[in-house]
Amino acid sequence: MEHIEKNILEKYIISREDFTHVELTDISTHLEQCAYCKDHAEKLTAFYNGVEKESQTEPTERDKAFADKLLERKRLALPEKKLALQERVDNALSTFVEIIEPYQRPLMQRIVRYIRIHPVRFVGGTSFAAFAIVLAFLAIPKIVKDNNPAFAKVKDYVLRVYNKNADEIWSKTVIGVPDCSSENKIESEGEMKRFILIRDLDSDGKNELILTGKLQDAEYTCDTLYCLNNDGRLRWKAGTGNWIYFGEAGKSHQGNVYISDFCTITQRISNKLRLYILASVHQFSPVKLLEVDIDDGKVLHGYFNRGGTSTVDHSDLNKDGNEEIILAGINDAYNRAYIAVLDPDNIDGHAPVTLQFQPTEIKKAEEKYYLLFPLSKLHELYGQVSYNGVKSLEILKDGKIRVYINEILQINTPENIKDVGEVYLFRPDLEVVAIAPNDHFIKLNDYLLKHGKLKKSLIPEHLEKLKKSLLYWNGEKFVNIPTMNKKYIEVAMKLP
Hints:
Strand content: 25-35%
Number of strands: 25
Shape: globular
Radius of gyration: 30 Å
Strand order of the largest sheet: 15-16-17-19-24-25
């Protein structure tokens, strides 16, 4: 097995953004198989980590005197192009050994050892490492006193972490994590996904980074959540636990698991953060909401929905001091858009399903609320798929919830109108306040009227019909009046 060239390996350690994804993967695979190169890479990594750590400290008077002494040595100047290169390198090396050897600062000891064992020749003929020392001591380092992560971004598999002043604190390679930032979700494979979140999980004043990957086979995979300390060291990693089949019909839908979102909520009594993960089976169904322990990543409990989930959010809807978890998406057992409101302390179980998809491994969940959205007349006439879905969800300041329903239609119009939907407004107890058509619904309604394909407008009478066709789960069956799950009420009544 051929070894990686030393200059390539060093560049891999200190400047991975210069490599392509294929090159990074090849080097990473080689290091897993070659003990010699892996050992050399670990030594280089330790060296440069030490240099970076030492460079963050204020230079002492002895440091400055040391730099002055270096400048006095004429042999440290860059050599002319046609001098004896090896002699110049040897002279530079002996000069550094003479000056640095007695100096017991750990950084100096590492530099001497590095120059002796691994001189990286510069094009000009001097030792790159030796020349780097002069530059390091000539420059006054920018001292980053605030090392608390506030923002992070990934570009070309390099994670860069910044404090609140936008100073870069540290960086590391995260092969498998796509280009993203800690501020936003990004569109990936047809849905909005989160890949990075920054939170102070243990309330020690230092933020941790929580992240996941996009790929199945990489350093950071799509089915695992990784928690990094504020200095970039791995604290723990969490899987998604066991999965269930939604009846015999559900077995054909099993595939690769991926994490699409994660969030934290605050527990009222202890004021402790709790971490929840939303994971899916490709393509989209089923979905599992699970809580993991913030200290070690252990899976605590989980909630399963048959169908894709586009949104996970949290809010204290009824202003009792406790936040609820809100899920929204599709229940493909009923082929309807859904909303679920969960008590974070009681998420074990599965969502309502038809008999065909009834699982046997776990019990029915006790959601606080679970409701299904009806299909519109336009969907009945021109629906391209058998279901509608929740496009997005918005929680307002007064606790009301605005839900945007999307219906995919197949109809030829001059404006190619397909993204038709309705907007529902709910009170915190999920009683509907109002329903309105989106712009595409209005345009298509007007177009069909104009061309004689509708006898009368669907606005507003049909919308009122939809409003009355919402279905609420009461713990045993769906009813068309606003209601809380009575099974949840029974459990809540027993709590202290």
